[in-house]
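We treat protein structure as text, and this decision shapes the records that our systems exchange. Below, we set out a record of this kind in full and without editing:

***
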Amino acid sequence: MMNNLKRLEDEISAWPNISVHPHRFGEKEFLFGSAEVGDVHEGGIVDIPFPRAVRNARTLEGLRS
């Protein structure tokens, strides 16, 4: 698992204008300028803050499955 998280961090940090910083509770957060585009927990959970409309649509899709 840790190798996959390191590969994910390496890949995302290589994107233009993305920086990696410590986040709450030992996580790593990825910033585009000052905006967070996501964070990764050591247990492998990835949080991506989608706009509300996208999140709601994805949630409905999951409920219909």
Q: What stands out?
A: The first helix runs from residue 2 to 13. The CA atoms of residues 40 and 46 lie 5 Å apart. The chain has a mean pLDDT of 84. The first strand starts at residue 18 and ends at 22.
